[in-house]
Amino acid sequence: MSDSALREADRTLVRPARAPEAHPSGAPAQAGRLAAIDALRLLAAVAVAAYHYVGTPTPRFWGERYDLPQAAPLLHAVSGYGWLGVEAFFLISGFVICMSCWGRTPAQFAVSRIARLFPLYWAVVLLVVVMGTVTVLLGQRSGAPTDLRTTLGNLTMIPGPLGVDFTAGVAWTLWVEARFYLLMGALLLFGLTYRRVVAFGLLWLVLASIGRELHSTVLDELLLSQYAGLFVAGIACYLMHRFGPNLLLWLLTGFAWCYTLTVLDDRVASHPTSNWGASAAVLTGFLVLLALASLSRLRHLRWRNFVYAGALTYPFYLVHQSIGIPVARGVLKAAPALGLLPSVAAGLLFSLLLAAVLNSQVDRRLGPLLRRRLTAALDPGPRPMPLPSDHRVVG
Predict the structure, then answer these.
(1) How far apart are the C-alpha atoms of 330 and 337, rounded to whole Å?
(2) What are phi and psi of 384, to 5 degrees?
(3) Are 329 and 61 in contact (CB under 8 A)?
(4) CA 232 from chain center: how many Å?
(5) Is pTM beyond 0.90 here?
(6) What are phi and psi of 28, to 5 degrees?
(7) Domain-wise residue ranges, the chain
(8) Is 375 helix (H, G, I), strand (E, B) or coil?
(9) Over pLDDT 70: what percentage of the chain?
(10) How far apart are CA 206 and CA 392, in angstroms?
(11) 3 state DSSP class of 316
(12) CA atoms within 13 A on the CB side of 39
């Protein structure tokens, strides 16, 4: 990048939105949408689902009659690394959220995130609660229905800090994402420029490293020391996508990736069937795919099927474990002759169909409505004051 271009990038706080591009089919595409990134999101979601369904190390996860290492040994071994899909989501999030922040005010960014995340999340939490209550009342599951306090805590999207269990098991990642959004929102208060974002990434990694050295729980929570490298690497990839690759951005990416692979050992330790070398290779593969999706000719891909798949990723991710697995277990119990893998496929298919319904009925309807209402609420006009009943107009 030339000095003049760099100075121009530093001066640029807000860029006007580009006109939407068209898909080959003629359907309008969302401005700036990268279909290859959506495809990568789908790959990460499939990896996580594979881990929960067939890669889990929990013995007899599907009952006493079924042992995954014996029923599908290769599939079980490969899917055992599917938990890295969560890390891939954080990597992609660094890219996408930096792109989403650019040219927006903190308030606009907050509105976009709330409208994107909360309607689907609320719907899934309520679905899980209703489904769990019905199965308990019908005697299909032991235990007590989810209590009101737990449900209310989960509707905030931060049940962990409030001291209640997650209703949707995968929702712990949303709290990680939310803290990343807060960090990006704080940066937005100063305005996004090329140099500020680079400095932010470097400073974040250094402070996160200090937090780990001090064994500071507070710094770890605030700075996301386990995942900081993933987010920063994603941010660096976006900067290369926007401004072009250069030595500084490659160094930032390399620093972030060295950090990521070093602290990855902590996550590997919590997954006893995985080893660090294979995990590092898989995660590096996701980074390579992100670079290809954003820097190679793939960035020009405008295939709307990938875009739709990307739209289904979030609802599918939310429902595949807490709703899809009970459905698969119900199929397996009702039709044991069907076998394990067909029952697993039924649970995954149900999750995908439910995700499509949620996308159509919740995300596309409530999301835009919430966005409009929140945008209007940011700058409400003064309400007209009623005149006193004894008011007299003097001519």
Answers:
(1) 13
(2) -65, 135
(3) no
(4) 15
(5) no
(6) -70, 140
(7) 30-320+354-373
(8) helix
(9) 87
(10) 69
(11) helix
(12) 16
